[in-house]
Amino acid sequence: MTTTARKAGPRAQGATIWLTGLPSAGKTTIARLLGARLKAEGHRVEVLDGDEIRRFLSAGLGFSRADRNTNVQRIGLVSEVLARNGVLSVVPVIAPYADSREAVRRRHEASRTPYLEVHVATPVEVCSERDVKGLYARQAAGQLSGLTGVDDPYEPPEDPCLVLPTQLQTPQESAAAVYAVLAERGLV
Asked: Are 188 and 10 in contact (CB under 8 A)?
């Protein structure tokens, strides 16, 4: 052993933490809180916000089932590559269809990259009250159609590693619950 051995730091184990749920469920808030905590601990972290991805990586895609699937697969690929290379990739994305999320899970399994699916299980009535982006109000006024969970389907995960009832807990408590799962699995 040499005298220049480095001090042990956080493991460079990557993973994808996929937060799925309705619009205004709290996915991005939870992701940012979790990301900040992980960064403060010295982990390599990226938050792949669904809205940012839509503007840049998936610009030009609409909201048909095929376009939504393409968007989810693009995000899934980026996240898997990051996670495979030691980054904790936190993904707050609606991803309304179970088959799209399952394809992302399979991609991770094929590369032996940890994938955690978290259901941000906020009831649509609560999401509608929060209405962070005004989507529910626009849909109610007839200015928007295809709103996930209202007039377009949302298929909740059948077997997520964690369910967050955000109407019953603070965003900080939700982020702490996700962190606890990461710790339990040896990823932090």
From this structure: yes
CA angle (48 as vertex; 104, 172 as ends), nearest 5: 105
CA angle 78, 37, 48 (to 5 degrees): 20
**Distance of alpha carbon 154 from alpha carbon 98, whole angstroms:** 8
pTM of the model: 0.90
Closest to 17 in 3D by CA, of 155, 124, 113: 113
Provide the residue type at 71 as one letter. N
Report d(CA 69, CA 65) in Å as an integer.
6
Q: What radius of gyration do the chain's Cα atoms show?
A: 17
Sequence-ordered list of residues with C-beta below 8 angstroms from that of 115, at least 6 positions apart, any chain: 15, 16, 18, 80, 83, 104, 105, 108, 109
Reported as a single tens digit per residue, the pLDDT across 51-77 is 899 888 888 898 899 999 999 999 999
Per-residue tokens: 122: 């906020």
Would you state the structure tokens that stand for residue 61, as one six-digit string?
């895609």
Which residues make Cβ contacts (< 8 Å) with residue 11, sequence separation at least 6? none
Express each pLDDT in 127-166 by its tens digit: 999 998 999 999 999 998 889 999 999 999 999 999 999 9
* Helix segments in the chain, DSSP class H: 27-40, 50-56, 65-84, 98-110, 124-130, 135-140, 171-184
